[in-house]
Amino acid sequence: MEFKDYYEIIGVAKDATQAEIKRAYRKLARKYHPDVSKEKDAESKFKELGEAYEVLKDPEKRAAYDQLGAHWKAGQDFHPPPDWGAGFEHSGGFTGGDAAAYSDFFESLFGMKGRGGFTGAEPQFRARGEDHHAMVQIDLEDSFHGATRTITLRSPEVDPQGHVVMRERTLNVRIPKGVKQGQHIRLAGQGAPGMGGGGVGDLYLEVEFRPHPLYRLEGLDLYLELPLAPWEAALGAKVKVPTPTGTIDMKIPAGSVSGRKLRIKGRGIPGKSPGDLYAVVRIALPPGDSEQAQVLYRKMEQELAFNPRAGLGV
Amino acid sequence: MSNEFLTGIVLDEECLLTLDELSRACAVQTDWIIELVDEGVLEPRGGDVSHWVFSGISLHRARTARRLQQDLGINIAGAALALDLMEEIEDLRAHLCVLEREG
After folding, report:
1. Which CATH number is A271's domain given?
2. Which of A17, A42, A151, A186 gives a 20 to 30 Å CA spacing to A170?
3. ipTM of the complex
4. What does the pLDDT look like over A269-285, one tens digit per residue?
5. Cross-chain CB nearest to A172 (options B5, B60, B67)
């Protein structure tokens, strides 16, 4: 297991005050919060940060961590000292912790004691089981045709001996046609079991679309970049255009310029009022690397009075 | 694992959540949701509190607000502001994406 340098993660010196640690943490937390940040590894950075702060904000845990000594370097192979934990009393009291979020390093030092519950769970004085949440990734096409997904969920649970264990379960879920980015699918009775005869919680799946190689999603509308030969754009043409439900023939009006949006009504995300598909024109130039192409380009140069920079006043 | 396929309900503009359901889905007390409504983060339909119903998008907003509040230590007004700004940035990013493609 790797040693984690919590001071390095938060970016403070080992003798930083509690106030300095809090300030540095808050700043980085805003930067890497997965809801806010667009950085690729925001989620893992944020988790790491949360773990470091969980230890350093608590004087008891911080003192215990400091006791390991200053000679450890981040990433070094680590085993807790044999007398670890002796002489330290932990009051527990982890807040809203997600048991799955902490590293093995953290668990080896501070264990699972005093913790339980699911992500962000508040104490509730109800007997009904908690609702659970998970993310499900689908492809754009799945929204057009509907699909099924097999998802594996891990959640912490308290076993009969009172230990927190990770329970894994697999569900087969139908993804209904017309589902949209960010929408939730509610699966009744698939959340946490209730206590004292209470009902079972629900499971909410948040739908996320994987990026598509051809289409870009904007609300219910899809955008497709449509390359055209200069003569197709200038003279008009009938070209084949892909859509998520199959290829269509599309009429290109004469004089289409780069960036022009051609709307194909109702070919966006399906639904009662379906979105549209927009083909955005991009002029593709035939390469001038053959003799024949060069002759034709020269001919255009000589016979067409065309100044592409006329709008620049030069 | 059973081979049975589960069919859920998609929460859209028509599938509505009651105040209780929304609170439970966010693992919060109903008072917290009422505060979000007071702050203008959520716009329920249905007149008085006991008849409130929320559209599916409310769940997304409420949960995001909850995470921001818990993780960044901001109050509800701050979370509301962050949500508004995040949505504005999202729109601007989408526009920028279109402009970059056209350019």
Report:
1. 2.60.260.20
2. A42
3. 0.70
4. 998 889 999 999 999 99
5. B5
